[in-house]
UniProtKB/TrEMBL annotation:
Name of the protein in its database record: Uncharacterized protein
PANTHER family from the UniProt entry: BHLH DOMAIN-CONTAINING PROTEIN, CXC DOMAIN-CONTAINING PROTEIN-RELATED
The organism's place on the tree of life at top rank: Eukaryota
Lineage: Eukaryota, Metazoa, Chordata, Craniata, Vertebrata
Amino acid sequence: MYVASTNTTRVNELRHQLFCARRGEIKSSQLPPCEDCLFMHVLRANYQAAIWRRCLQCQPYVPSPKGCGWTTDDDGKLAIEWMQGSAAPDAVLQLLSCKYRRSCKLPDCTCLANSLKCTDMCKL
C-alpha cells in the first residue's frame, strides 16, 4: 500500500525500512502510521461507515463511539484515541533529544511538541 516495490507485509517493518533507507534523516510525518495508529484509524473509519450506512433510516441506532477509536476527555467531550500503546519503548524514548539550545518551550522544542519530556540527551 505504501511502497509497491517491497515484499514487506507488516507496517512496522516497512516503517523501519524507510527509516533506515533515509539513515534516520526523516520526519515522522513522512513515515506511514505505525500498526497501532493504523488500527485505531481503521476502527474510526469503520465506525463512520456504519453511521453512513444507517443515514437513510428514520431513527437509526447509533452505537457509542467509545472503543471505536474515540474516548472521552476529562470534560466528557469526545476525543480521538490515536493509539493504545506507548509511542515507543522506554529505552528509545530515553535516547530522543531536542536540538533547541536555549530553553525548552513550545513550539521550538521537539520533545515538548511531541508530548515527550526532555532527556539528558537534549543539548541544553
